[in-house]
């Protein structure tokens, strides 16, 4: 598979001495804020947008959130700079999702960070393959999937944030972690968590109601990011590939042609942070239209919305149109 465990660059490790573990530079929600502190706020380092969003929404004015993955960067292939590795060591809390970004996983392990929360432990992970049955299409399940990472057949699927119910479970865990890191403001974190969870329940209801009375259950998308969402709402995800970098086999492309015809598929979905070449070629072959279904791994100027909720509502509108929901 294209995505493999990466070792931290020697320059990144050696650079820690030069950086000195003092004020470090990272990307906040605007991509320009500095980590480290002295202003009384909790210094949170978040690995990529979905956990960054939770930390910002729950932490509010009491936190300063530094994101390791800058807007527009495909998160699966993130390589860390020395300053970013140093930020992990200095943070009051590190929030990440193990199995999605190998470089981050290793950096967290080596950093000796005082407090970390792995979002993958806050809800139950499942294994999803490229096929509509949701599990391990074209390969064996692989037991407990020990040591397997995203992009490997049979590995746990990390895309829990695309299911509002699971994302709410993660939000509750992040809220508790912030309260433990900063007991003085535990009440504020609990209040913000409750508000966010309520909003996610509303989003869940929007999807449940919006996808009723559809003409097909099947959608075809660029990579297998939507397994949890598909299971939540009774849909069949047919993905071109397991991860954004992989090229589909000829056999897989033939299967997709068959699914598109048999299941009355109208749309081939692509995404904003990865190449749309294969998806558009498939759509041309089949005479189908294309549209964006955003896996929400980052927000850019090309995103159909300014935050998680706006992009998810855009995804819902795209699915309703593609599935013929009335």
Structural class: alpha/beta
Rounded to an integer, what's the Rg over CA atoms?
Answer: 20 Å
Give a short account of the largest sheet.
4 strands, parallel
Instruction: Report strand %.
Output: 5-15%
- Helix and strand run: HEHEHEHEHHEHEHEHEH
Structural shape: globular
Give average pLDDT, whole number: 83
Estimate percent helicity. 25-40%
Order of adjacent strands in the largest pleated sheet: 2-1-3-4
Number of strands: 8
Unreliable spans are 1-36, 133-150
Please work out how many helical segments DSSP would assign.
Answer: 10
Q: How many angstroms separate the termini?
A: 40 Å
Describe what is shown at a glance.
39% of the residues lie in helices and 11% in strands. It is of the alpha/beta class and 326 residues long.
Description of the structure:
- This protein has 326 residues and is of the alpha/beta class.
- The protein has helices at 10-19, 49-59, 82-90, 102-111, 164-181, 186-210, 227-232, 250-262, 277-286, 308-323; strands at 42-46, 63-67, 93-96, 116-118, 218-223, 236-241, 267-270, 289-292.
- The strands form three sheets. The chain has a four-stranded parallel β-sheet, sandwiched between helices.
- Helix 2 (49-59) crosses helix 5.
- It is globular and about 60 Å long.
């Amino acid at each position: 598979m294209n995505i493999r465990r990466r070792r931290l660059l020697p320059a990144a490790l050696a650079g820690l001495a030069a950086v000195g573990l003092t004020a470090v530079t990272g990307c906040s929600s605007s991509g320009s804020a500095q980590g480290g502190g002295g202003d009384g706020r909790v210094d949170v380092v978040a690995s990529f947008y979905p956990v960054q969003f939770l930390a910002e929404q729950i932490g509010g004015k009491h936190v300063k959130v530094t994101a390791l993955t800058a807007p527009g960067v495909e998160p699966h292939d993130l390589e860390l700079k020395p300053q970013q590795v140093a930020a992990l060591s200095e943070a009051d809390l590190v929030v990440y999702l193990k199995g999605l970004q190998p470089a981050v996983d290793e950096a967290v392990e080596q950093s000796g960070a005082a407090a970390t929360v792995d979002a993958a432990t806050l809800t139950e992970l499942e294994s999803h393959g490229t096929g509509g049955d949701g599990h391990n299409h074209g390969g064996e399940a692989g037991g407990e999937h020990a040591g397997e990472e995203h992009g490997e057949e049979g590995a746990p699927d990390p895309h829990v944030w695309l299911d509002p119910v699971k994302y709410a479970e993660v939000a509750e865990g992040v809220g508790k972690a912030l309260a433990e890191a900063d007991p003085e403001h535990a009440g504020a974190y609990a209040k913000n968590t409750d508000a966010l969870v309520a909003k996610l329940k509303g989003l869940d209801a929007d999807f449940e109601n919006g996808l009723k009375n559809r003409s097909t259950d099947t959608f075809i998308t660029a990579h297998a990011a939507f397994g949890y969402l598909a299971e939540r709402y009774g849909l069949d995800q047919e993905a071109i590939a397991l991860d954004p970098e992989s090229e589909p086999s000829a056999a897989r492309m033939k299967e997709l042609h068959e699914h598109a015809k048999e299941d009355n598929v109208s749309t081939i979905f692509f995404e904003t942070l990865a190449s749309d070449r294969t998806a558009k070629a498939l759509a041309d072959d089949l005479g189908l239209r294309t549209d964006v279904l955003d896996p929400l791994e980052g927000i850019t100027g090309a995103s159909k919305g300014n935050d998680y909720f706006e992009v998810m509502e855009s995804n819902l509108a795209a699915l309703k149109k593609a599935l013929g929901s009335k």
